[in-house]
UniProtKB/TrEMBL annotation:
Coiled-coil regions listed in the entry: none
InterPro entries, sorted: Per1-like
Record-stated family: Belongs to the PGAP3 family.
The organism's taxonomic lineage, starting at the top: Eukaryota, Metazoa, Chordata, Craniata, Vertebrata
Gene: PGAP3
Segment forming the signal sequence: 1-23
Compartmental location: Endomembrane system; Golgi apparatus membrane
The name this protein goes by in its record: Post-GPI attachment to proteins factor 3
A single GO BP: GPI anchor biosynthetic process
Entries under PANTHER family matching the protein: PER1-RELATED, POST-GPI ATTACHMENT TO PROTEINS FACTOR 3
Keyword set, alphabetical order: Golgi apparatus, GPI-anchor biosynthesis, Membrane, Signal, Transmembrane, Transmembrane helix
Organism: Equus asinus
GO MF annotation list: hydrolase activity, acting on ester bonds
Length: 299
């Protein structure tokens, strides 16, 4: 036991110097995975594993090797806790208690609730705002396309929406050219991360950069128009809340009850922000429609 403790402490000290995560570099973990694969992942044992594996796990692509990694992860976590060491990460992630085929169940549920909130508010927007509103096509059609890919594109869509609101209504050609530029940036960004190298540092820097552009642009417009358009204050609150809540992503701690981590908390906390943002979009679209109708009558 003393030798194992010394090995764990030595590994903890070398964590900053080596690549990978502390948990999956642990010899106990590696040996456990190797033995598990030899015992369960070939020949008749593999057939037995597949016969008793729930169908939802196989449909999700959960393999025998994945199952070995999961079981051995908890063996290693138990040893760390038994020896009084901090919980390690495995393959860049904290250990989570699996539910069905969800490796991070709280984040999955929170993401679903986020999407549900957006869907409900989008349906409300479509029923309360006539399609003749100047902002309607931008808020509905393009949002679906951009939101499909990843979180980064949500920020790009917000920047595009801000461009349309501040410049594009008067100069549609400018908004169209800017949209093409954003789509080109998005394509290059996703292609680099998917086909060349998924660089976490670059991805973080890129998201921070476009996030700052989004915040500064929206806030500048809100501050300029808040006296004339009271509903703009909703947009200000949304922007400030999202920036404040994004600090949760910087927290890094083992999941509470092996389920709830900072990322899941962030997802849950942003649900009401979506509701407030769609409320702003609804108010602003109705204002623009009223303004457009008044201008048409004058003409």
């Amino acid at each position: 036991m003393a030798g194992r403790t010394a090995g764990l402490m030595l590994l903890a000290g070398a964590a900053a110097l080596a690549s990978g995560s502390q948990g999956d570099r642990e010899p106990v973990y590696r040996d456990c995975v190797l033995q598990c694969e030899e015992r369960n992942c070939s020949g008749g044992a593999l057939k037995h594993f597949r016969s008793r594996q729930p169908i939802y796990m196989s449909l999700a692509g959960w393999t025998c090797r994945d199952d070995c990694k999961y079981e051995c992860m908890w063996v290693t976590v138990g040893l760390y806790l038994q020896e009084g060491h901090k919980v390690p990460q495995f393959h860049g992630k904290w250990p989570f208690s699996r539910f069905l085929f969800f490796q991070e169940p709280a984040s999955a549920v929170a993401s679903f609730l986020n999407g549900l909130a957006s869907l409900v508010m989008l349906c409300r927007y479509r029923t309360s705002v006539p399609a003749s509103s100047p902002m309607y096509p931008t808020c509905v059609a393009f949002a679906w396309k951009m939101d499909y890919f990843c979180a980064s594109t949500v920020i790009l869509h917000s920047i595009y929406l801000c461009c349309v609101r501040t410049v594009g209504l008067q100069h549609p050609a400018v908004a169209s050219a800017f949209r093409a530029l954003l789509l080109l940036m998005l394509t290059a960004h996703i292609s680099y991360l998917s086909l060349i190298h998924f660089d976490y540092g670059y991805n973080l820097a890129a998201n921070v950069a476009i996030g700052l552009v989004n915040v500064v642009w929206w806030l500048a417009w809100c501050l300029r128009n808040q006296q004339r358009l009271p509903h703009v204050r909703k947009c200000m609150v949304v922007v400030l809340l999202l920036q404040g809540l994004s600090l949760l992503e910087l927290l890094d701690f083992p999941p509470l009850f092996w389920v709830l981590d900072a990322h899941a908390i962030w997802h849950i906390s942003t649900i009401p922000v979506h509701v407030l943002f769609f409320s702003f979009l609804e108010d602003d679209s109705l204002y623009l429609l009223k303004e457009s109708e008044a201008k048409f009558k004058l003409d």
